[in-house]
Amino acid sequence: MGKIFLLAASFFLFSIYPLLSTELTILTENLPNLNYIKDGELVGLSVDIVKEIQKRVGSHEQIKVFPWARAYSLALEEKNVVLFSITHTESRKGLFKWICPLVTKRDILVAKKGSGIEINSLEDAKKVKRIGTIRDDSKERLLKSHGFTNLESVSDEQQNVKKLILGRIDLWVNKQPGLKTVCDLAGVDYHQLEEVFHLRERDLCIAFSRNTSDSIVRKWRNAFNDMLTDGTIQQIRNTWNFE
C-alpha cells in the first residue's frame, strides 16, 4: 500500500512539475514614466502594477529591460514572454494575449518652443526635414503607415529629446503623460518644448506571447481585475499622477 501511495505521489508531482517550473521571461523597455531606469533601479507606474501582479500570482521572475525592437521581437517569436507597456492596436490584436489597460496615453508631436513649426495635419508633418522616433514602436509604425519618409529612429527617448533641443531633429513623436519625465532624465528643461499636434489616444497594456499557457494569462488577468476592484490600480496611478 505504501509503495502504491509513493508511486501515485511521484506521478502526481511529475505531472504538475511542468506547471510549477514554467518560467516567464518578463520584458520591458526604457519608457519614462511608465517603466524606466532611475538611479540604477527599474521604476514606473507599469512596473509597480506588474510587480504587484507577480506578488499576487507567485511569480518571482526578474523584469528585464531591453531595447524596444528586441523586446517586441522576442515576444512575437518566443514562448512564455510577457511584454509591457505595449500599445494595443488593431494590427497587434491577434499577435498577443492581452491585459488592458494599464493606462491610456496620448501620442503627440513635440517641437522646440520658438521653432515656429505649426502642424495642423499629418501632411504638414511630412514636410519637416526630420522627426525623431523609437525604432519599431507603435508611433513610428503609425507614421510609416501614413507614408512618412522623414523619420530618424533611435533606441531611447532621451536621445530624441536631446536631438530636438540641439536642432538635429525638427519634431519628436512622444506621449502624454510621460514627456516631462523623459526631459528630467535627459537633463532638458521641459518648458523648452511644446506640443504641436495630437496624433491619437491609445491604451497601454501587458501582452503575453501567443503560445503562453491560457492558465497563466488567466491568473495574471484575474489578479489585475482584483486590483482594479480593490482600488490598487487607481492608487498606483495616483502615485504617478495619472488620471
Q: What is the element layout, followed by pairings?
A:
Elements: H1 2-21, E1 25-28, E2 36-38, E3 41-43, H2 45-57, E4 63-65, H3 68-77, E5 81-87, E6 96-112, H4 122-126, E7 131-134, H5 138-145, E8 151-154, H6 157-165, E9 171-176, H7 179-186, E10 193-209, H8 214-229, H9 232-239
Parallel strand pairs: 1-4, 1-5, 7-8, 7-9
Antiparallel strand pairs: 2-3, 5-10, 6-9, 6-10
| Shape, principal axes of CA atoms | globular
Query: Beta-strand level of the residues, as a percent range?
Result: 25-35%
Radius of gyration: 21 Å
* DSSP E strands, number: 10
CATH topology value of the largest domain? D-Maltodextrin-Binding Protein, domain 2
User: What is the string of helix and strand elements?
Assistant: HEEEHEHEEHEHEHEHEHH
Total tally of structural domains: 2
Distance between the termini: 62 Å
Any idea of the CATH class of the largest domain?
Alpha Beta
Helix content: 25-40%
Q: In which order are the strands of the major sheet placed?
A: 4-1-5-10-6-9-7-8
